[in-house]
């Protein structure tokens, strides 16, 4: 009997083979739902609408605070991104280097979002700027008639100054108007392209991020694939089957980016970019799996715990279905 499941995930190059049916997980009739990640996270974390979905890594770790966690993950990471580039500043606030953020007013969509966890952790590790040395304001990045609420609640550390922006306000405009000194975000605030005094903290972000990778061997994980616990408990085999399907789909993405008879992507100098990336990060610069990413996950879990989000200091193995962590040998 074929198991019918829904998978909510953005249509990345590494997932398109699953979306289009070139890769079919054995024993599963999969309905691929291509939504923006913000919609997926909201609907899954609030209402558990999907059998399988992409999820914010930080949000998934927060669900483990629950005595009966509603999800279990597989070591597949559809989104990874360096986040130095995603810190935006008002240059009129006297900020020219990371250390200048101390004592400043910082906006963030949700304090517990994955990008922010990485950004705060890197600032503390590399520049000595602690999260509680800044004042935090959370809310919608752009104008919205509806306020942005946290998808998951967490206990705010006593030393942290965190508040919600007033109704009708948004982080992008507040940054441009000088009500905020900086915005830590995943998306780019629209004020960045409209106002010359809204700039990146790291204008040379490519150089900074490459240096970070060379020092740490970390390309930050943003999202992870999760399965509803009820689905997994009834059908534990789906975890490994889905893991294999995502691995096959990733190979199609590598194949496409290496094609040279015709460009598969609208980047004229894709070849140069690929050569540079491989020179910095190696041939298999994008990898799933626990073994390949243990050090990345361990650093994130360290940050989550130190920042008062995770209630315990998890180990990477704690995150995943056990049957995804080993395989048979002939």
Overall pLDDT, averaged?
97
Cα distance spanning the termini: 28 Å
Q: What's the tally of helices?
A: 11
* Record field, number of beta strands: 11
Q: Return residue spans where pLDDT drops below 50 for at least 5 consecutive residues.
A: none
- Which structural category fits the helices and strands? alpha/beta
Strand content: 5-15%
Largest sheet: 6 strands, mixed
Question: What is the helix/strand order?
Answer: EHEHEHEEEHEEHEHEHEHHHH
Cα-based radius of gyration, to the nearest Å: 20 Å
Strand order across the largest sheet: 8-7-6-9-5-10
Shape call: globular
Helix content: 25-40%
What is the element layout, followed by pairings?
Blueprint: E1 3-8, H1 16-19, E2 28-33, H2 37-47, E3 52-56, H3 57-63, E4 71-74, E5 87-90, E6 105-108, H4 114-127, E7 135-138, E8 161-164, H5 171-177, E9 182-184, H6 191-194, E10 198-200, H7 205-216, E11 223-228, H8 229-234, H9 237-258, H10 270-281, H11 290-306
Parallel strand pairs: 1-2, 1-3, 6-7, 6-9, 7-8
Antiparallel strand pairs: 3-11, 4-11, 5-9, 5-10
């Amino acid at each position: 009997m074929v198991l019918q499941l829904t998978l909510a995930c953005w249509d990345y190059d590494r997932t398109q083979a699953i979306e289009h049916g070139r890769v079919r997980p054995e024993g599963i009739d999969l309905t691929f739902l291509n939504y923006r990640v913000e919609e997926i996270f909201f609907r899954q974390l609030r209402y558990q609408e999907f059998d399988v979905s992409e999820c914010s890594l930080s949000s998934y770790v927060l669900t483990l605070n629950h005595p009966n966690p509603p999800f279990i993950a597989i070591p597949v990471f559809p989104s990874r991104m360096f986040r130095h580039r995603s810190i935006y500043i008002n240059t009129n606030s006297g900020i020219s280097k990371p250390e200048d953020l101390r004592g400043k007013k910082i906006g963030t969509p949700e304090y517990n979002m994955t990008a922010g966890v990485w950004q705060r952790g890197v600032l503390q590790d590399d520049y000595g700027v602690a999260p509680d040395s800044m004042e935090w304001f959370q809310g919608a990045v752009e104008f919205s008639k509806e306020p942005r609420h946290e998808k998951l609640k967490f206990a705010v550390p006593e030393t942290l100054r965190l508040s919600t922006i007033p109704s009708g306000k948004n982080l992008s405009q507040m940054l441009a108007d000088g009500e905020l000194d900086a915005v830590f975000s995943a998306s780019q605030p629209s004020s960045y392209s409209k106002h010359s005094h809204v700039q990146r903290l790291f204008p040379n972000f490519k150089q900074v991020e490459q240096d970070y990778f060379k020092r740490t061997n970390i390309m930050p994980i943003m999202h992870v694939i999760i399965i509803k616990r009820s689905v997994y408990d009834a059908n534990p085999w789906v975890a490994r089957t889905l893991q294999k399907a995502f691995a096959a789909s990733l190979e199609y993405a590598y194949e496409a980016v290496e094609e040279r008879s015709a460009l598969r992507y609208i980047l004229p100098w894709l070849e140069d970019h690929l050569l540079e990336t491989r020179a910095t990060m190696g041939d298999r610069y994008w990898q799933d799996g626990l073994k390949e990413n243990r050090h990345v996950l361990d650093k994130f879990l360290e940050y989550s715990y130190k920042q008062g989000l995770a209630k315990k200091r998890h180990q990477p193995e704690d995150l995943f279905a056990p049957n995804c962590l080993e395989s048979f040998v002939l």
